[in-house]
Write a structure and sequence with these properties.
The complex is a heterodimer of chains A (124) and B (268).
Chain A (H helix, E strand, L loop, with lengths): L3 H4 L17 E9 L6 H7 L5 H10 L17 H12 L1 E9 L6 E5 L2 E2 L9
Antiparallel strand pairs in A: 1-2, 2-3, 3-4
Chain B lengths: L7 E2 L7 H23 L5 H8 L6 E5 L14 E6 L2 H7 L9 E3 L14 E5 L8 H14 L6 E7 L24 E8 L14 E8 L4 H12 L3 E2 L10 E11 L2 E10 L2
Parallel strand pairs in B: 2-3, 2-5, 3-4, 5-6, 9-10
Antiparallel strand pairs in B: 1-7, 6-11, 7-8, 10-11
The chains are: A alpha+beta (124), B alpha/beta (268).
The structure holds zinc ion.
Chain lengths: 124, 268
Amino acid sequence: MVRLITHNLLACHVRGCTTNNFPLAFKDVEIQLREAEFNQDFLRGFLPKLEWRALVDTAKSLNDQSLPDTPPAPEQMDTEFLKALHHVLLEIHVEEGAMVCANCGHVYPISNGIPNMLLQEHEL
Amino acid sequence: MSNEKAVVPAPDITGDASKYEETHVHAIYDEIASHFSATRYKPWPIVKQFMSSLTPGSIGVDLGCGNGKYMNNPSSIRTIGMDRSRNLLEVAKLARQDGCDVILGDVMEMPWRAHAFDYAISIATIHHLATHSRRVKSVELLLKSLKPHGGRALIYVWAIEQDGASKRVIPTTDVPQYQASGIDVLVPWVHNVKPEASTESSPPVYKRYYHMFAKGELRSLVVEAAHALQLHVGESGESNRSQRGLQIIQDGWERSNYYIEATTWEKE
Ligand SMILES: [Zn+2]
């Protein structure tokens, strides 16, 4: 499955593509929403490692506006915020479509929820 | 044991190693995925221990996740699975009740931000890479995937030294000259999907390529990869002037496999 938790980690790795290769842009996506197990400890621990800007912009590109432009300080993370973060990271499943590199234009197809990150020999 | 089921030395690999792996590893796993998956459910103790020691909030990657047997973790951590076999990934994505994130990828590539992960595991994967330099490169990429300080790695590979209980017959005596640097073998997979079926047509046998590691070989592989990344191998401390390094936490042998656990460090 491609959820935003994974999308926030993936980057284009075509040889020579080292700047502006993150985040990849979703294209022609088919989305399913599925409930996931809520775990505060995970969210609080994981949040500092997120590329926040990329997460917010990508969520917006999938019509989810629930996240603030800057993350709240740890002591101000209320349940409402954590639930929204949980939903964006773990409950939006991109089942079909593609991810496109803004720098080199490489297209990484997604089929049946599995993104194909393999490159051709000449791209390595 | 019929000849068909014996482990045999692999013929010398000539030409493109990645193409060789495509034929002798990836294509076979795609073919045998469902049957293979049904046989892979018992976690190895060292891996289990490692997974249960991870800090809540950790994000990790399972390089060569297969059917996802190490991805059914408590929801306080999340593991992204990568494999070359789409058919195994179709199984792996269901390893957790609420789903697992998996990606189709190769351990010779790194399709994510460098240093993005808190942990990386490579369980029974790099012994399918057909040359020493490819195995080193894959470990380099694994280490590069880890955060610079406190990133944890666990690697597990098949050993020449087999458990007494193992059913495998290993042709080590045939090829003693290769033992110091491991041996390359073809391991048959008898694709016996219908055990009750008539024996008139015998099940297909797929021969998978394995590099069986010699004692000490995995550790020196990790050291070589760390050095290639300018990482000091050893403890952080005043005894060395390096800024970044890799500490080997433990290494050993368990149930016909060698394993190694290591942690990255960076001085402030
Ligand atoms: Zn690119």
